[in-house]
Design brief:
It is built from seven helices and 14 strands. By secondary structure, it is of the alpha/beta class. Helix 6 links the parallel strand 9 and strand 10. A seven-stranded mixed sheet has the order 1-7-6-5-8-9-10, sandwiched between helices. It has two domains: 99 residues, Sandwich (Immunoglobulin-like); 179 residues, 3-Layer(aba) Sandwich (Rossmann fold).
Amino acid sequence: MTFLTLAQVVFLSVLWMQSAPNVSSNPQASANPDESLLTLHSAVSEVHLVFTVTDKNGNYLRSLTQSDFEILDDLKPPEKILSFRSETDLPLQVGLVIDISQSVRERFTFEQESAIAFLNQTLRPKYDQAFVMGFDMTVKVTQDFTDDTERLAAGIHRLQPGTLTAMYDAVYYACNKLRRESPNTPVRRVLILLSDGYDNASSATRERVIETAQRAGVSVYTIRTSLTASGRGPKNLEIIADKTGGRSYVPTEITGVANAFTAIQTELRSQYAVSYKPAAFKLDGRYRTIQIRTPKQKGLRTRSRRGYRTTRIADGSDR
């Protein structure tokens, strides 16, 4: 079991920033939390995009082909599509991040059992991996990356409710962990955050968390653990999920937590991935919008991140 104090998290964050590639000095690059950050290699200029498609009833469509889609990057078609594939079989690297602060005590046991059921149903032995992390005012990794669901369940059961809430620090740490420790082979990096969305102890900000998740290629799925919709907590969760290409789930009763896990499992096996070279691309720090259309089939809805800001980096490690 690994216990990190808030001070240690901050220290590790500073070390990571010192070794990480430089981002744009444009003061507007992080001023707007609605603008997702994507760093691109100066020679390759390749955009990686994961998205889902649903019909008017919300059903996922899994059998579409590249010819069914039209992509606009900065209002222009890509110069070249480099790859297109269904993500139904891509290995998963999952970070399960659970709020164990004072505010979740009444629902904590049910949330633990729902999380265990999700891992049992989702992880494929020798193919997918996950880690378990809890947080109050400190970060606690109770089970590192493994495909062993029994060890992951034990890690979840070792979590105990604590005190204050450093949600942003926890998500920041988890995204960097996924970035550093995932294999070099193609994987789908996913963070599942169970929290009420409130934070009263972090040094990181919501905007910093969004940028970090984008750099790490992590989609954040949030499940709100509070059954009340008042305050800033629900909005924080919604914004983090939306800007990282994930989705925010808002259960209206405690049993809805399990339903949210089931919905996440379905979505993770219903995605498409495309890589392309943008047209008229320049590393100028400007924000470029992304649109995905289905001109051959009306009434379909595509969902992905909505854009990125280009930033010159030293190598391709952050693409």
